[in-house]
Design a protein that fits this description.
CATH superfamily: Alanine racemase
Distance between the termini: 21 Å
CATH class: Alpha Beta
Strand content: 15-25%
Bound molecules: pyridoxal-5'-phosphate
Order of helices and strands: HEHEHEHEHEHEHEHEH
Radius of gyration: 17 Å
Amino acid sequence: MFVNPENYFSILKETQAANATLVAVSKTKPVEAIKELYDLGHRDFGENYVQELLNKEAQLPKDIRWHFIGHLQGNKVKYIAPFVRLIHGIDSFKLLKEVNKQGGKNNRVIDVLLQVHIAQEETKFGFSEEELNTSFNHELQELNNICVSGLMGMASFTEDMNKVRNEFKNLKRIFDQHAQLQTPNFKLQTLSMGMSADYKIALEEGSNLIRVGSLLFGKRQNG
Ligand SMILES: *Cc1c(COP(=O)(O)O)cnc(C)c1O
């Protein structure tokens, strides 16, 4: 047993009370662990590594909605483009164009979230607020095989929950600002923020998609 059903249903209830979606982050966990949650009715799963996702996708039911939440390399987009439900971590225009190209080859529109750099740490990937403000209006026009359907962010890795809250507040503000401007392939609806350690704060600050791993599946050895 990887999953404690009572624990799952209690997190699910909190998520639903906030009108949010719970993505179960299953990276490094075996297919049996995913199957346990699947059998409880769960369908949204998040993975960070392309090869691992491909292995799992091949073994598991086709009605799973796979979220790619890791750092995606351009040369690997083609492998997940046929089936991925949502790519959370778009952190460059170049990557967005590659997703668009692969979407075209697969005859589909791929939903993506732009990752916004909200933490103070220099190591986190993502766009700055300035980049979002300047680069995304006209350039998106020719990209008919992607839809920017939201934003994603990760708070600082810190015990200081005030700091985390402020970073989430900031992302929500940026989200609200850009949500007003809607075009056929830029429609912000999803705000992906919050993980095991900070999902409660994220929900309070307006997240409508949380990505929870260790709290559902237990601690990871690595990754
Ligand atoms: C691993 C990961 C998560 C889940 O982390 P937990 O702390 O186990 O809940 C969420 N989001 C991203 C981007 C991750 O890489």
